[in-house]
Specification:
Layout (H helix, E strand, L loop, with lengths): L30 H21 L21 H8 L3 H8 L8 H10 L4 H10 L17 H9 L5 E4 L5 E4 L1 H6 L1 H4 L8 H7 L10 H16 L6 H13 L1 H8 L9 E7 L3 E11 L7 E7 L2 H16 L7
Antiparallel strand pairs: 1-2, 1-5, 3-4, 4-5
Length: about 325
């Protein structure tokens, strides 16, 4: 593995005539101060993880008497395939660049679990690596009970990339094409932009599409450079000229409750309020709940669910 040696350049004062950075708000930390604090946290974290791994844990002989517990820095460097000087600088909190591959190697050597690995990447200011499909969050039984207990409100558990992992009966009644799709296409963004008009119940797509893409870009900014995200965006741009046009606007917006209007054959129009609730125990996973805005919408949603149940079209995951 190639040893990274490039050192970050420190900020330099603006040249004459060059615009100065915007003034800080009262109480706001300087960027350099935040970076310094982050590197100090990184140094402390790496030392603590190194000290808990014994030579025996990684298949090395105990060796002579050790002054400190755990592995030595040079042992971590050797096992990770990086230079001793580089790893020492990383653990000392010096401003050096680190690649995804190198941090992955360090994480394996230090036997970091998922949360610790994500913490390492965040402290090193490196985009979090992609999560493989088989590493998606496991939907616990507690979450399933909560989601199913929301009936008659449609609810689903969704990843940051809008992959739908689980759902209750009312949600399946509203979106049968999503829940019955192959796993790679079981995604609400993919459905919004690729479903044929006669299969897409969203009425106010002209409002929901720009909002949805702006929020999607907001979530993507937390996963910059991740291959699975880039692949999904490229495929959706190719499949939907509307998504490609909206994506090119660079618009961004934080998630917020919004009204969504639907039209279902034989049922009529209904309007819901979509609310996203983050699952703290599983970062990136959120509970999406649709709440009818009036009695008419509530009654029509109940009829839709009853019809789907009677025809066997309301299967759950």
């Amino acid at each position: 593995m190639a040893q990274p040696t490039e050192i970050e350049r420190l900020p330099v004062p603006p040249r004459p005539g060059q615009a100065r950075p915007a003034a800080r708000q009262p109480g706001e930390a300087r960027p350099a101060a935040r970076a310094s604090e982050r590197r100090a946290e990184l140094a402390s974290f790496l030392r603590s993880r190194r000290e808990r791994v014994s030579p025996e844990d990684v298949g090395m002989p105990p060796g002579p008497r050790r002054r400190t517990p755990g592995l030595r820095r040079e042992e971590v460097a050797q096992l990770s395939g990086v230079g001793v000087t580089w790893y020492t600088w990383l653990e000392q909190g010096r401003p050096i660049n680190a690649s995804t591959q190198v941090l992955d190697a360090v994480a394996r050597t230090l036997r970091l679990d998922g949360a610790e690995r994500e913490h390492l990447f965040r402290l090193a200011d490196v985009p979090r690596p992609a999560t493989a499909v088989d590493e998606w969050p496991t939907v616990t039984q507690d979450l399933r009970v909560i989601m199913e207990g929301l009936d008659p409100l449609p609810a689903s558990l969704v990843t940051a990339r809008s992959d739908v992992l689980a759902w209750n009966g009312p949600y399946a009644a509203m979106f049968p094409d999503i829940v019955n799709a192959p796993v790679p296409e079981r995604n609400s963004m993919w459905f919004m932009f690729t479903a044929p008009p006669d299969r897409n119940p969203i009425v106010n797509l002209d409002e929901q599409a720009p909002e949805g893409v702006a929020v999607f870009r907001y979530r993507y900014s937390q996963h910059l450079g991740e291959p699975e995200w880039l692949d999904f965006i490229h495929r959706l741009c190719a499949a939907s000229p509307l998504f490609a046009r909206l994506w090119a606007t660079q618009n961004v917006a934080p998630p917020r409750p919004c009204e969504k209007r639907f039209q279902f054959p034989g049922i009529g129009p209904l309007t819901t309020r979509a609310t996203h609730l983050d699952v703290a125990a599983l970062p990136g996973l959120r509970l999406l709940v649709y709440t009818p805005v009036d009695d008419t919408s509530r009654d029509r949603l109940a009829r839709l669910h009853a019809r789907a149940t009677a025809t066997g079209g309301c299967s759950q995951d």
